[in-house]
Write a structure and sequence with these properties.
2 copies of one chain form a homodimer. With 305 residues, the first copy, chain A, is an alpha+beta fold. Chain A folds into 2 domains: 117 residues, 2-Layer Sandwich (60s Ribosomal Protein L30, Chain: A), CATH 3.30.1330.10; 155 residues, Phosphoribosyl-aminoimidazole Synthetase, Chain A, domain 2 (Alpha-Beta Complex). Helix content of chain A is 32%, strand content 26%. The first copy, chain A, contains 9 helices and 13 strands. A 7-stranded mixed sheet of chain A has the order 8-10-7-11-9-12-13. A 4-stranded mixed sheet of chain A has the order 3-6-4-5, with helices on one face. A two-stranded antiparallel ribbon of chain A has the order 1-2. In chain A, a hairpin with a 6-residue loop joins β1 and β2. In chain A, α1 packs parallel to α2, α1 packs parallel to α5 and α3 crosses α4. Chains A and B meet through β2, β3, α1, β4 and β5 of A and β2, β3, α1, β4 and β5 of B.
């Protein structure tokens, strides 16, 4: 526990020291047979991922995570060793990202479920979804679609050669929240517009479009994909556009920043993929013209493993 | 939303204004067929209760609740109207207790589950579980065992005449978090030791005993029960001692306070039920002597509806 935590687990509530910074607050959940199947990865990776998906929300606002509470829904058939390993994975990522796990609750259920509520702090200005303007350039960190491919491999819907398979599966099981990139972005002025890509590029860009009351045009040739993605998908960009669970940052800036400058600043590969325009629609431009993509993204209410 | 909330739902995180007070942080969950069955009460009552069980944790620390995030695990077969009503019930209690619902997340699941993570603020000193000393007197608010009876009536394991039935069922479906009593208690010096009774009197007193490294002796003749409890249970105190989900406050004070004075101060009936002693055991004294009660309390991992 850091000095920010006055009282950790074991009482009715945790007590956190006062803080002068505005606070961020978010919650996210992973449910067995909806978001994961047991046996796909280790309990440690599952524990870490259930924290990482929340860290990604803090990263998207440009904040620093501080403290979390965990609700564990446990089912019959899982032994204490399983939960020790799950918790060890979560604790290890928490330590690496300076998060105190300050409390929790355990309940019975039919399926394993891990819900994390995470607090963070943010400096003078948080990055929001509602500040994009026509003319802004749209950027994305890392590569897209790898996690969706890893999921399909794990679900037995797709096969890939050994090394490719391992790389894609790892992207799915162990996503990296772009915390350092988020902090670097939030120091820029004017403050960028940002979101993390959890539902899929087109759907999450749609969230920026909706909240900012703008449209967006993506250049399909600029979508960053990994060599593993190319190996499996060739020129098919559908999972890079709508796969989901990338946990990369999607952000919009006033024009004039180079990919190279941003990459140095953020410590991660950055690609310019399009432009904010008037209107409300998210369009993808490729050799055949501009189309409104039909990718549904990862809609959690309809999604199937 | 209050002025404490700079940005509510709709972005990656909520943004809360800075605060100079120490903060409380807690999480609790209600799962279908573990904590409730649909059809037992209205969706509104279910929504309110899933917030109330968290408010009770803030009350037990002597704090003021401020903001919450909600994770909703939804299953097939429940329509939008159901969730609107559930949310209306939660929002209504949130408004009454000055809580901002600042964010949420929705996931699919096999069973309905409502998880609330709640923040609060606390004044100079929070009430903890670890400060009881031998000689302290043990008090409890309200009456005990009603909720456990209501649960058994709802589960069809018990019957009761109409008015009694309705009163007991209502105690189970619509618990009241003792927020005002908690605030009043936390202003006393020395700061009381406190916990809310969610697992059952004996089990929760055991939590105080464990954290404070003391024992406790309860006088069975002083356990407060309602006339509805007497109607159904007669002299059997087992559900008052170990029923659970009372959401009353259990607290320990240096000797010398009268029930009447405390009742006025806390705005609720207060009963002195025993004394903190040396040792580690929680004993119940009745006409036949002192015994270690066998009530297991509401152990969520073993409990069955």
């Amino acid at each position: 526990m850091s000095r920010r935590t006055a009282l950790g687990p074991g009482d009715d509530c945790a007590i956190l020291a006062p803080s002068r910074a505005p606070r961020l607050f978010t919650i996210d959940s992973m449910v067995e047979d909806v978001h994961f199947r047991l046996g796909w990865g280790t309990p440690e990776k599952l524990g870490a991922k259930s924290l990482a998906v929340n860290l990604s929300d803090i990263a998207a606002m440009g904040g620093r995570p501080t403290a979390c509470v965990v609700n564990l829904a446990v089912r019959a058939g899982l032994d204490m060793r399983f939960f020790e390993r799950l918790y060890a994975g979560m604790r290890s990522l928490a330590r690496a990202t300076k998060v105190d796990i300050v409390g929790g609750n355990v309940t019975r259920a039919d399926k394993l479920g891990i819900t994390v509520a995470l607090l963070g702090e943010v400096g003078a200005a948080a990055m929001r979804r509602d500040s994009a303007r026509p003319g802004d350039e749209i950027f994305v960190t890392g590569t897209l679609g790898d996690s969706a491919l890893g999921l399909r491999i794990l679900a037995g819907k797709l096969s890939a050669p050994g090394k490719t398979r391992r790389a894609l599966v790892e992207r799915h099981l162990s996503p990296t929240a772009r915390l350092a990139a988020g902090l670097a972005l939030a120091r820029m002025r004017p403050v960028p517009t940002a979101i993390d890509i959890s539902d899929g590029l087109v759907q999450d860009l749609g969230h920026i479009a909706e909240r900012s009351e703008v449209g967006a045009e993506i250049d399909a040739t600029q979508i960053p994909v990994s060599k593993e993605y190319r190996t499996v998908m060739g020129d098919d960009l559908s999972l890079a556009l709508g796969g989901g669970e990338d946990y990369e940052l999607l952000f919009c800036l006033r024009p004039g920043r180079s990919e190279a400058e941003l990459g140095r600043r953020l410590g991660v590969q950055v690609r310019r993929i399009g432009t904010i325009v008037r209107g409300r629609r998210v369009l993808v431009r490729n050799a055949r013209g501009r189309t409104q993509p039909e990718v549904a993204g990862w809609d959690q209410l309809r999604g199937r493993l």
